[in-house]
Amino acid sequence: MAxxxxxxxxxxxxxxxxxxxxxxxKLDRQVTRAGKEQxxxxxxxxxxxxxxxxxxxxxxxxxxxxxxxxxxxRDQLADAHTAARLDLIAQVLPVLDGLDEAIKAxxxxxxxxxxxxxxGQRVRVAWxxxxxxxIGFASDRDEWAAxxxxxxxxxxxxxxxxxxxxxxxxxxxxxxxxxxxxxxxxTVAATDDQPAGRIVQETRRGYxxxxxxxxxAEVVVAK
Length: 223
Description:
Blueprint: H1 2-110, H2 119-130, H3 141-164, E1 168-169, E2 182-188, E3 199-204, E4 207-208, E5 213-215, E6 217-222
Parallel strand pairs: 2-6
Antiparallel strand pairs: 1-4, 3-6, 4-5
Helix pairs in contact: 1-2, 1-3
């Protein structure tokens, strides 16, 4: 009985050994197939990652382009706003020039002792002063002084409006000539009191913002 069991076990072992190469080959095919599937999966994953990276790069590039466009539009809008503001300021400056001339004429009239009795003459005086024309007679001092005070008040209000807009007068009177701020329209001989390069007279006031000249001051310079 024991010999029969041993014989059966040996037969079963022979069958197992005989079937082993086929099992190994099958397992090898399965491993190879699994490796190919894994390779395909890795390639697919790498392709997907590259696609995702390309999409992200496109999104970043698009966002950068939109940011550049927004910045460009903002700069263009700021330039247009600055140009419009300077154009408005340029239109105000002649009004200030007229007020300055009127004030000079008024001060000259106040220095004249001869009164003007006619109301019509006083109106003509005021009108000619506003236009910057030479005036050969004086008005009633009290009335003229009141009118002159009103003109000075209007001038100060305009200067305040310009200051709020960032515009200031350019210093010129008794200053040294600076081509960045002044334009020479005439020269006079230098003296001990007025050395070369000093501004002797301001013929038209200049104005500037923090970063540019709106209008150069026109000056007479000692040379």
